[in-house]
Amino acid sequence: MITQMLATHSILVKIFLGFLVAGLFIPMVTAKNPLGFRKVSFIFTMTFQGIATMIAFTGLVAMVTGEMPLSLSIMIMIVLWALLMFVEIKKYRLIKMAKIENPETHRVLKGGFIRITVIQILLVAVMVVLMVLKAKGIVAI
Ligand code: HEM
After folding, report:
1. Is-contact 33 40, C-beta < 8 A?
2. pLDDT at 133 exceeding the cut of 90
3. Burial class (CB in 10 A: 0-12, 13-18, 19+), 1
4. This prediction's pTM
């Protein structure tokens, strides 16, 4: 049960990473269509939250059923998860409220979308590397 949950957790994190990388193309494919950008952004944010929720669920179930103590690595994961969610919701709010038909606003939001997605990718990748180093016994977190 715990092994299965952790394996699912681990696969979901990799799917999440792939999803984020794919998201980088959204501003490009909707470059000439601001309303399309807003619509696809909405679908992206919903999917983001769906995957993130599954990651938290599998992680929490593994932690509770495995009776794992709240280690530093788990704390980092929970804080990172909350941060990723917070930034994603803020980002979508901005895109939703903005006068996206304005070319300048559209341009700024496209740039912001890419920058935020790159930061999210880096954060998730760093977490994966940290957990690999932990598994190898190189770092103790
Ligand atoms: C509420 C959020 C989360 C909880 C409760 C949670 C919980 C856990 C637990 C209990 C483990 C096993 C730890 C160990 O073996 O010492 C684990 C492993 C891991 N978690 Fe999380 N996690 C959460 C979010 C995340 C997020 C957001 C990421 C990525 C950004 C992530 C990436 C990983 C990775 C890469 C592993 C190693 C998996 C493996 O063994 O292959 N976790 N998590």
Report:
1. no
2. yes
3. exposed
4. 0.94
